[in-house]
TrEMBL record, chains A, C:
Coiled coil: none annotated. Belongs to the MoaE family. It comes from Jhaorihella thermophila. One of its GO terms (molecular function) is molybdopterin synthase activity. Converts molybdopterin precursor Z into molybdopterin. This requires the incorporation of two sulfur atoms into precursor Z to generate a dithiolene group. The sulfur is provided by MoaD. This is Molybdopterin synthase catalytic subunit. GO terms for biological process: Mo-molybdopterin cofactor biosynthetic process. The lineage of its organism: Bacteria, Pseudomonadati, Pseudomonadota, Alphaproteobacteria, Rhodobacterales. Keywords: Molybdenum cofactor biosynthesis. Heterotetramer of 2 MoaD subunits and 2 MoaE subunits. Also stable as homodimer. The enzyme changes between these two forms during catalysis. InterPro entries: MoaE_sf, Mopterin_biosynth_MoaE. It catalyses: 2 [molybdopterin-synthase sulfur-carrier protein]-C-terminal-Gly-aminoethanethioate + cyclic pyranopterin phosphate + H2O = molybdopterin + 2 [molybdopterin-synthase sulfur-carrier protein]-C-terminal Gly-Gly + 2 H(+). Pathway: Cofactor biosynthesis; molybdopterin biosynthesis. Its EC number is 2.8.1.12.
From TrEMBL, chains B, D:
Residues 24-51 form a coiled coil. Belongs to the MoaD family. It comes from Jhaorihella thermophila. SUPFAM superfamilies: MoaD/ThiS. Keywords: Coiled coil, Nucleotide-binding. One of its GO terms (cellular component) is molybdopterin adenylyltransferase complex. GO terms for molecular function: nucleotide binding. This is Molybdopterin synthase sulfur carrier subunit. The lineage of its organism: Bacteria, Pseudomonadati, Pseudomonadota, Alphaproteobacteria, Rhodobacterales.
Length: 147, 81, 147, 81
């Protein structure tokens, strides 16, 4: 299991390739990448991501451990950035490997659902009009109910 | 006890962390002490349903006991991923 | 939408990177990669994949079109190899992009479920003892019921 | 009409494709004609529930009509992905 929390960009293609290459006996590799998306109304200048340094790594590793208890998994990778990101930049990625595709998909979705609502990150949207903290969505909290 | 604030909680209170001397037995009691201090704390803690708390970097609820806790963090619901 | 059916290996990391980079307005990119896995009992020398050239591209494009009708998607990529593959080689990949993660995940799983049972590929496992066609699994057919 | 065979259907029949002259109205009638030919066809078509059929490269069922069809393909359930 590898958990990386960093300000710098990461190389998605190289990370995905290295992750997949490192697996043995795994038939399925799933990756998810989150990208800074412009607002539906346009005008996003930047996304600022704040985090809680002492807790972040621990919280993510805890979620990844739970995923490994629950599914038959090979490796798990989580990379999450903080700081100021421009639209189009990649915020984070997860990768999961498993003997079978169902486990790899479910574990990746589980990781994403928990990272959304249980890892200590907060997003702020910067536009010409000012800055607004992103509100947590009810649907993200509801997404945890299925696990 | 170290008390940390993140996101708009940090902005409303105007600082990221402070050391607090308290005899509060629970998180809820600590919140009441902080609210009584100044308007900016009152503004930050006005609606507890909009807040989350971590004790020594683990998510807990507001009735959790503070005994033995070194670090308390207050923040809005997380929006990672 | 890009559908590639080829004998040659593909570069998973480069494909994933190029796919993700090509998206605008998409917050979520999901990839799935299938890897030749050794038998549970060991001893797999190669996997031979036969396909139906006239139908393969058409069948995959049809499934991808259905995914695009059903979910709010950006681009869709499917690469599937045929011929002789060694254990550890990548058989295929899909990638999906969407404004939101739920759509990207569901579309990728839908594509995989349909590719498994509705695209004209057949796998044969080669061991020292001989060659055996892989039997379709009831669970793969059942996986289609949820869509 | 072109008739194609894949995977173990191809192996049992011993060839990947052939041109067949037939007046069969449906896939099922075509299968009966082929089965009557030789043991290797009988062996390939013994259990239709283990087979799939495509007409002009679209999956169909065994009761589908053959009128206007140029290419019929028989194969076991697919195992891609």
């Amino acid at each position: 299991m590898r958990v990386v929390v960093q300000q710098e960009p990461f190389d998605f293609g190289a990370e995905a390739e290295a992750f997949a290459r490192g697996q043995t006996g795994m038939g399925a590799v799933v990756t998810f990448t989150g990208v800074v998306r412009d607002l539906d109304t346009g005008g996003l200048e930047a996304m600022e991501i704040e985090h809680y340094p002492g807790m972040t790594q621990k919280a993510i590793a805890g979620v990844a451990e739970k995923a490994r208890d629950r599914w038959s998994l090979g490796d798990v990778l989580v990379i999450h950035r903080y700081g100021r990101l421009a639209p189009g930049e990649r915020i984070m990625m997860v990768a999961t490997a498993a003997p079978h595709r169902k486990d790899a998909f479910e574990a990746a979705e589980y990781l994403m659902d928990y990272l959304k609502s249980r890892a200590p990150f907060w997003k702020k949207e910067i536009t010409a009009e000012g800055a607004d903290w992103v509100a947590a969505k009810d649907e993200d909290e509801a997404a945890l109910d299925r696990w | 006890m170290e008390v940390l604030y993140f996101a708009w909680v940090r902005e409303r209170i105007g600082l990221p962390r402070e050391t607090v001397e308290t005899g509060a037995a629970t998180v809820r009691e600590l919140v009441e002490e902080l609210r009584a201090r100044e308007d900016r704390y009152e503004a930050a803690f006005a609606d507890l349903s909009a807040l989350r708390v971590a004790l020594d970097q683990e998510l807990r609820d507001f009735d959790a006991p503070l005994e033995g806790v070194r670090e308390v963090a207050f923040f809005p619901p997380m929006t990672g991923g």
